[in-house]
Amino acid sequence: MSNDGKHDPSCIFCRIVAGEAPAHRVWEDEATLVFLDIFPVSPGHTLIITKGHHENLFEAPAGSLAAVGAVSKRIAEALREELAPAGMMVFQLNGADAGQTVFHYHMHLLPRWPGQELVLHTRVPGDPVALADLAAKLVARLERSAS
Ligand code: AMP
Ligand code: ZN
């Protein structure tokens, strides 16, 4: 596991990377992990994280950020093929005053549909069955596109 040696046992995303906490995983490579947001603002709300624990854009090494950027295109394409949203929002928050709530670098991919309110967070958990189903479909789609 390549995580730049940075691991914070009190960080929920580090615990997901280590397999100590559950997640609806979609993709994994040496530098990144991708899973569905458990409080999805819209169907397909996905997080792309660096495997290493870096608090934000300012702390994360450029190479890790580049890896997140590269994988974001693949994941966005898979989400578009699977869900056919009208648009795709990409956002990334740095610092509590910018709305960041989990202090481990991550990029959000948020499929969007007409009329959807422009919000970044919700407190409504996603349906675990629907999340598991979507994650499995995305995994299969990404495997097909890789081969
Ligand atoms: P941010 O506000 O940019 O730090 O985003 C953190 C995101 O992580 C929010 O959208 C949360 O819903 C999401 N989140 C928090 N805990 C988990 C978890 N255990 N699994 C998946 N997503 C999570
Ligand atoms: Zn972490």
Classify the helix fraction into a percent range: 25-40%
Structural class: alpha+beta
The rounded distance between the terminal residues' Cα atoms is 23 Å
CATH topology (fold) name: HIT family, subunit A
Low-confidence runs: none
Q: For the report, how would you describe the main beta sheet? A: 5 strands, antiparallel
CATH structural class: Alpha Beta
The number of helical runs is 3
Spatial order of the strands forming the largest sheet = 1-2-3-5-4
The figure for the number of domains is 1
SS strand fraction: 15-25%
According to CATH, the homologous superfamily is HIT-like
Can you walk through the features of this model?
The chain is α+β, with helices and mostly antiparallel strands. The chain has one domain: HIT-like (HIT family, subunit A), CATH 3.30.428.10. It has 3 helices and 5 strands. Strands 1-2-3-5-4 form a 5-stranded antiparallel sheet. Bound molecules: adenosine monophosphate and zinc ion. The site of adenosine monophosphate has 12 residues, from loops.
SSE blueprint:
Layout: H1 12-17, E1 25-28, E2 32-36, E3 46-50, H2 62-83, E4 87-91, E5 106-112, H3 128-146
Antiparallel strand pairs: 1-2, 2-3, 3-5, 4-5
Bound molecules: adenosine monophosphate (AMP) and zinc ion (ZN).
Summarize the structure.
The chain has three helices and five strands.
Question: Which structural traits does this protein have?
Answer:
147 residues; alpha+beta; HIT family, subunit A; 5-stranded antiparallel beta sheet; globular; binds adenosine monophosphate; binds zinc ion
